[in-house]
Amino acid sequence: HLKKDLVNNFNIQIFKIMKNNILTLKGIKVRPILLPLERPVVAKIATLYNWPLILIDLQTKEGIIGRSYLEPYVPKSMKYLVSALNDLSELFKGKPIFPFDMFEQARKSLHFVGYEGLSMIAISGFDMAAWDALARTSDRPLCEFLGGSRAPVPAYNSNGLWLTDPELIGDEAQELIEEGDFRALKLRMGRETISEDILALESIRKSIGEKIELMVDFNQGLNQSDALRRCHALDDMNLSWFEEPILYDDLEGYAKLARELKTPLQIGENFYGPREMYKAIRKQASDLVMPDFMRIGGISGWLRSVPIAAAAGIPVSTHLYPEVAAHMMRITETAHWLEWQSWANPVLQQPYELSKGDLLIPDRPGLGLEWDEKVIQSCSI
Question: Any idea of the CA torsion for 279, 285, 290, 294, to the nearest 10 degrees?
Answer without folding.
Answer: -40
